[in-house]
Design a protein that fits this description.
This protein is 34% helix and 25% strand. By secondary structure, it is α/β, with parallel strands linked by helices. It has one domain (2-176). The strands form 2 sheets. It has a 5-stranded mixed sheet with strand order 3-4-5-6-7. It has a 3-stranded antiparallel sheet with strand order 1-2-8, with no helix packed on it. Helix 3 (74-96) crosses helix 4 (100-110) and helix 3 (74-96) crosses helix 5 (133-150).
């Protein structure tokens, strides 16, 4: 099992995941496309069952003002740009690095028979566990539809998920780390 910490949430990926990399902290990203000013990256790149997953994590707990400003209009664009830049970075890194996991991701990007999934894992203070599941589902559907519009050029397999969902992403568990939900340290 591989674990990745993002925004005070620990993600544990089960055995079905053959690749799990924290892309925005990866040396290949940092020394590669990140050198271009303004380039962004998704948090996690993964491969499961031969399909590519691009996972962006946003934890707005403790950031109520930013949450209201960025949602719903700005967030889909920001995530869409991170996906775009990640794809460019993976392709570039595959040409330069010789790292098998990067070559696997690049190959999957180019294989029209393989699926590409974009997961926006959003923890939002407006959706507390006490909220009815129907309200959370509507909220997630609206945001997924907005993000799907931004990513129509790449895939329609777009999901907005949250740790509140339980099984939002197969064989992945998200748990809060100490300090989660508060202001940044």
């Amino acid at each position: 099992m591989k674990t990745v910490d993002v925004e005070r949430i620990r993600f544990s990926f089960g055995e079905s995941w053959t690749v799990v990399e924290k892309w925005d902290d990866c040396r290949l990203y940092r020394e590669g496309i990140h050198e271009l000013d303004g380039t962004k990256a998704v948090d996690i790149v993964g491969v499961r069952d031969g399909d590519l997953y691009l996972i962006e994590v946003k934890d707005f707990r403790g950031h109520a003002i930013e949450t209201k400003r960025r949602q719903p209009s700005e967030l889909p664009l920001a995530i869409g740009c991170k996906v775009r830049d990640t794809i460019a970075g993976l392709i570039g890194a595959s040409r330069q690095s010789g790292e098998p996991w990067v070559e696997t991701c690049a190959r999957l990007l180019l294989d029209g028979k393989r699926r590409i999934y974009v997961i926006a894992w959003i923890e939002d203070p407006a959706l507390r566990a006490a909220e009815p599941i129907s309200k959370r589902q509507v909220w997630q559907k609206v945001r997924a539809d907005q993000l799907r519009q931004r990513l129509a050029w790449l895939t329609n397999r777009v999901t907005v998920a949250s740790p509140l969902d339980g099984a939002a992403l197969a064989d992945v568990i998200g748990k809060n780390l100490p300090g989660a939900g508060g202001s940044p340290a």
